[in-house]
Amino acid sequence: MTKTIFSLVLAAMVIAWSGCEATNDFDPSSDTDTDTDTDTDTDTDTDSDSDGDGDGDSDSDGGVSGDGGVIDMDCSACPAVGPTMENMLCAIDLCDFTYVVSNDYLTPIAAPTCALEDTYEAVNHFGAVTNGLAPQKNDSYALMASGTALGTSHSQNLCGGNSLLDPWTTETTFIYDVMEWQLVITAPSNAQAFRMKYVFFSEEYDDYIMGTVNDKFYIILQAGSTDGGNAKVINFTECRDPLNYSDFTCQPGDTSCTPGEEYCFIAINSALSECCWYPTGSFYAPNPGDPPCPLGTWTTDISGTGFECATDVGSDGSTTGSSTGWLQTAWPITGGETFVLTFHIHDTGDGVWDSEVILDSFEFLATPEQGTTPIE
Fold first, then answer.
1. Can you give the pLDDT at residue 41?
2. How does residue 221 score in pLDDT terms, banded at 50, 70 and 90?
3. Do residues 338 and 13 lie in contact, with contact meaning Cβ atoms separated by under 8 Å?
4. Nearest one of 13, 347, 302, 46 to 208, comparing CA atoms
5. For site-directed labelling of 147, which of 72, 123, 275, 357 has its Cα 20 to 30 A away?
């Protein structure tokens, strides 16, 4: 598979892209205190806490909390709501900017027909305040969308881009409205993994299950400790209907999956999707033996987002959808290494039915962890 959309230039700490980039670039040196570091406190270390031990918390230990070896970062002074890239970092709880080498939002579409700023936002809540989408950590999270990030209308060809193919599949279907948030990060010296939480939504539920025309959300890692620095999609799961659709087969020697097994990326074909009414009324006629999905089997309340399950079985998906519910992905990292992390979302086959993702709770871990799992 070609990976020309994603290029790694770690040696120079610079990422080169051929598309369009948001204009409000992140400057890690823009703090507001009077010391000589890049945080906003008044101590002389390089984190945003109030001590001088060099870790990211507000005590005098090594920065590891009791929650599964989480390396703490103090987010109390981080502006976590708003339209800037600094807001986006704070919203996902990556609050110590000394870990962040660069922070860019872009599209590989050569001539996008949209303002990129319309497709992302840092918010306190998405949808109805009483739904099941309260932030997992602190009081906000980041939104990324293949349409407009805010509001409840998710049926628009916002940014164009029908000259691109998905580099992670063998399909020849064009992709549209491609958005990427790319971070170059240096891990703490005691880190052994990182982890984050998210929810994927799409208007393509449940109409296009088993089909190749389904939007995707990728977390792409480029790190020397993983595949020698080659780009790798690290958020994948078992498939919803593996006899009829899968994205890839795990290859011998890949320790992140079971060799020979079929897997799916985060999209409507993921086994972790919350079912509405599949296979009844699916655009792709179900085959004998397809797993049933009784009405109302979703468990995460996503009301007010515009992605709620269709009320009429066999809906064409133009106004409603579903989600994965809350997921988390963790991946090993080597302490002190610099790596590229890209959050990528796109429409497949059309630019009309949009998808969106909540991103929250980025954490470095002092203990190993790997895989994508649901959050109960």
1. 45
2. very high
3. yes
4. 347
5. 275
Spatial CB neighbours of 100, under 8 Å, sequence gap ≥ 6: 26, 28, 89, 94, 183, 184, 185
Range with the poorest average pLDDT among 117-121, 312-316, 322-326: 312-316
User: Taking the model in full, what pTM does it have?
Assistant: 0.85
Contact 164, 175 (CB under 8 A): yes
Please, are residues 340 and 115 in contact by the beta-carbon 8 Å criterion? no
H or E element, residue 186:
strand 174-186
Does residue 45 have a pLDDT over 50? no
* C-alpha distances out from residue 312 to 80, 125, 171, 207, Å: 38, 27, 31, 12
d(CA 317, CA 206): 8
Nearest 10 degrees: CA dihedral of 114, 344, 80, 268?
100
Task: With cut-offs at 50, 70 and 90, classify the pLDDT of residue 315.
Answer: low
pLDDT: which is higher, 93 or 294: 93
Do residues 375 and 197 make contact, with C-beta atoms less than 8 angstroms apart? Answer: yes
Dihedral of alpha carbons 303, 307, 308, 311, sign: positive
User: Is the bond preceding residue 279 a cis peptide, omega within 30 degrees?
Assistant: yes
Query: pLDDT tens digits, residue range 261-304?
Result: 999 999 999 999 998 887 776 666 566 667 777 767 889 999 99
Encoding tokens for residue 37? 């570091």
Residue with tokens 């899968």: 246
Give the span between the Cα atoms of 266 and 205, in whole angstroms: 13
Tokens of 11: 């040696």
* Residues contacting residue 312 through CB under 8 Å, at least 6 positions apart: none
Q: With 90 as the cut, is the pLDDT of residue 139 above it?
A: yes
**Whole-angstrom Cα distance, residue 207 to residue 286?**
11
Instruction: Please give the DSSP secondary-structure letter assigned to residue 87.
Output: H
Q: Which sign, positive or negative, has the C-alpha torsion 102, 105, 111, 115?
A: negative
Q: Which tens digit of pLDDT belongs to each residue from 146-181?
A: 999 998 888 777 888 777 999 998 888 899 999 999
User: What span, in angstroms and rounded, lies between the C-alpha atoms of 144 and 122?
Assistant: 9
